[in-house]
Amino acid sequence: MTDSETFQPEINEEPRMPGAEAGMDDKPDWEPRFRGSDRLAGKTAIVTGGDSGIGRAVAALFSREGADVAIVYLADEETKDAEKTKSIVENEGRRAICLQGDLGSQDFAKEVFTRTVDELGQLDILVNIAGEQHPDDSIEDITEEQLRRTFQTNIFSMFYLVQAARPHLREGSAIINCTSVTMYKGADNLLDYSATKGAITAFTRSLSENLVDKGIRVNAVAPGPIWTPLNPYGGQPPEDMDEFGKNTPMGRPGQPNEVAPAFLFLACEDSSYMSGQVLHPNGGIIVNG
């Protein structure tokens, strides 16, 4: 494989992932909890992984605060979820478009920005949430294909998206990346995933240093265990699902609408003196940094 090539496994290599929220019995809470106050009025945001989970909650909250939203998602199985998120945004009186494709492809990343600017007129906020994880008890169980795929989806995509977005970003723009509590405390069965989250945190801090003098702020959110389709659809071993999130000090997993306000804070002028920082909605887990 050359540096210019992109690893492209068949989507059905992991047939249960990333999963559809529409098929869950216990659906995550995405609804914004408060009235909007126009903190993102006149803005346009791209939200990757915006079809469900944290991404849906962010799209819903951003639209309530006045933003138009481009919803980026991966698979045909998630189209129903993406259309639902689109209707949520439109019901808030904002515009939305759905963009389906593999963010591990640099060509698709370019298409995302071209279509967003063409159809919504501008770009002000980039929210990188889309990701994947595959539990393995032993490092020996991680195949080369899985390792490449996880890094390509979780961190390569952020490089591709920022590279494509950079010409459209200007003073006052914001980039918010989704890292994870696993970057800080580790996860014995998520070695490759946790490694990508460490890379995302370093990328966030370095990109902030690179762009801060341009008036572009770069920050991140590091959620703890959050109830999203990623986990019951293969992101966690099935035998662990009954205990998911119960090892946090709060004794439960978080909901997407408990995480979305952290993204809103970093996207709007409330955080105008913050760049290169990470927020930690994680149920009370104490971490450094």
Automatic annotation (TrEMBL):
<dbReference type="InterPro" id="IPR036291">
    <property type="entry name" value="NAD(P)-bd_dom_sf"/>
</dbReference>
<dbReference type="GO" id="GO:0016614">
    <property type="term" value="F:oxidoreductase activity, acting on CH-OH group of donors"/>
</dbReference>
<protein>
    <submittedName>
        <fullName>Short-chain dehydrogenase</fullName>
    </submittedName>
</protein>
<keyword id="KW-0560">Oxidoreductase</keyword>
<comment type="similarity">
    <text>Belongs to the short-chain dehydrogenases/reductases (SDR) family.</text>
</comment>
<dbReference type="InterPro" id="IPR002347">
    <property type="entry name" value="SDR_fam"/>
</dbReference>
<dbReference type="Pfam" id="PF13561">
    <property type="entry name" value="adh_short_C2"/>
</dbReference>
<feature type="compositionally biased region" description="Basic and acidic residues">
    <location>
        <begin position="24"/>
        <end position="36"/>
    </location>
</feature>
<feature type="region of interest" description="Disordered">
    <location>
        <begin position="1"/>
        <end position="36"/>
    </location>
</feature>
<dbReference type="InterPro" id="IPR020904">
    <property type="entry name" value="Sc_DH/Rdtase_CS"/>
</dbReference>
